Amino acid sequence: MRVINLKDKQLASEHVATEIVKLIISKPNTVLGLATGGTMTELYQYLVELINANNLDLNDVVTFNLDEYVGLSPEDKQSYHEYMQQRLFKYNDSWNDNNIHIPSGVGPDLEVEAYNYEQKIEQCGPIDLQLLGIGENGHIGFNEPGTSFNSRTRVVNLTPSTIHANSVNFDNVDDVPVQAVSMGLSSIMGAKHIVLLAFGAKKIDAVKRLLQGDVATDLPASILHQHPNVDIYVDDVIFNKLKEDNEV
Ligand code: PGA
């Protein structure tokens, strides 16, 4: 596990967007694992710029998003379908709809759809590069504390901490869905390369606990210690605190 301080969100986002573009240029059928949330917004902005600047053909790029809220249709403003559309997919016509995968949050049997999603990852994978944020409670995807390390894509209950953290994107905390469909920890671990981004004071505790090294389900991100190829990009705010506490 490599910890890299790229000083701020902008520089880290530029760097990771560049890595993704290099990957697509060298492997046009790259399989990307995509994440949402506030952490990723600038990364997608730079990615769009670089995709257009390099006139990339994205037809063969395959994407799998980590999660979606249960109950939100793809058209819902707060859905992660819409997040991806507005921040990435709508800016380039060469994205191939057949290759873009985001778990469905609506439908008669979400468990069956989740199972099919997992099958699709197995069929198209392995994921070459998996993007991750980290929750204040140490979750990755919507794999909340206590999640089994063997978990696969399925319906999950969100914890009060996550509902509170994500309420910034909703008018009212009561509007935040209480469930989601999320890739599991085992699904995430199947990726060849994992890139986790964490910025700002709110993420200090989660990153600090992660680097302390204990591998336990009460900190879902700690499973990443068992993966051979993980980069963790942080900013000065997090890195300086880690340094002060002798964690790096
Ligand atoms: P955030 O969410 O990027 O909105 O902070 C990250 C996460 O909860 O995984």
TrEMBL record:
Q: Which UniProt keywords apply?
A: Carbohydrate metabolism, Hydrolase
- Superkingdom field: Bacteria
| Active-site residue list | D67, N137, H139, E144
Q: Name one GO cellular component term.
A: cytoplasm
Cite the GO molecular-function annotations of the record: glucosamine-6-phosphate deaminase activity; identical protein binding
User: Where does the record place the Glucosamine/galactosamine-6-phosphate isomerase domain?
Assistant: 12-226
Could you state one GO biological process linked to this protein? N-acetylglucosamine catabolic process
Q: What EC class is this?
A: hydrolase
EC assignment: the record states 3.5.99.6
Query: Which pathway is recorded for this entry?
Result: Amino-sugar metabolism; N-acetylneuraminate degradation; D-fructose 6-phosphate from N-acetylneuraminate: step 5/5
SUPFAM superfamilies, from UniProt?
A: NagB/RpiA/CoA transferase-like
Which catalysed reactions does the entry list for this protein?
alpha-D-glucosamine 6-phosphate + H2O = beta-D-fructose 6-phosphate + NH4(+)
Function in brief: Catalyzes the reversible isomerization-deamination of glucosamine 6-phosphate (GlcN6P) to form fructose 6-phosphate (Fru6P) and ammonium ion.
- Name the HAMAP family for this protein: GlcN6P_deamin
- Sequence similarity: Belongs to the glucosamine/galactosamine-6-phosphate isomerase family. NagB subfamily.
What is the protein name stated in its UniProt record? Glucosamine-6-phosphate deaminase
